[in-house]
Amino acid sequence: MNRPNIWSEGREILFEDNHLLVINKPAGLLVQGDATGDEPLSKKAAEYLRFKYKKPGEAFVGVCHRIDRPVSGIVVLAKTSKALSRLNEMFRDSLMTKTYWALTGKPPIPENGTLVHWLVKDTVRNVTKAYSEKHSQGLRSELHYELLGPAGNRYLLQVNPVTGRPHQIRTQLATGLGTPIIGDVKYGFIAPLPDVSIALHARQLQLQHPVTKEAMTFVAPLPDAPHWDAAREFYK
Predict the structure, then answer these.
(1) Could you write out the DSSP letters of every residue in the chain?
(2) Residues 89-131 pLDDT 10s
(3) Catalytic residue (choose from 17, 68, 122, 195)
């Protein structure tokens, strides 16, 4: 059996125990399979576990949340059905703190605040539209943001979504602040990045372990991509 040449501990594998596998997902990789047929993170994780533990059959990997394909950063996978069930409840009820870093082409005005929109997803075009007033088909979406500072010729924002809607951060920053994320041509940025990612990174996740109840904090290093280089000085 060949070991999948994809992950190393401390870089892609942020944490693993009997119930959880926490991955720093590279941009460009699907979390869960879709119509493209491209191999997703969940399949790669199953291969990794099958090799590591010499399992004769498929390893259990449960997906309890997703981040968009062009986004990098923390994804929590469940290794047991018990963990999956409890994680699903926690993500559904927003019982964790999610922190993202985003690069924009101009600073937000004001430099920090809260955005509330009603988001409507167009599943055919795979694009989300944000409305500032209550919309009959929209889902109320809220996030907090703050400008951490200039990063080269870009601006680094820290974003804490309160809700977890499809494309929420991308569309709320673009619509609510007029600051689309670097590389995100779908939501108004002028040009794609060379690697076709967008400069949005799931940086930190704080939650209670679904089985042991221990308070846990995961932090994902930034991708090794030139557009993130100037942001590394903001590491604490």
Answers:
(1) -PPPTT--BTTTEEEE-SSEEEEEEPTT--SS--TT-PPPHHHHHHHHHHHHTT-SSPPP-EE-----TT-EEEEEEESSHHHHHHHHHHHHTT-SEEEEEEEESS--SSSEEEEEEEEEEETTTTEEEEESS--TT-EEEEEEEEEEEEETTEEEEEEEESS--TTHHHHHHHHHHS-PBTT-GGGT-SS--TTS--SEEEEEEEEE-TTT--EEEEE-PPPS-GGGGGGGGG--
(2) 999 888 899 999 999 999 999 999 999 999 999 988 889 999 9
(3) 68
pLDDT tens readout for residues 6-50:
566 657 899 999 999 999 999 999 998 777 778 899 999 998 898
Residue labelled with tokens 């680094």:
156
Look-up: residue for tokens 């619509």?
175
Active site residue 34: no
CATH assignment, 13-234: 3.30.2350.10
Is the bond leading into 192 cis (omega within 30 degrees of zero)?
no
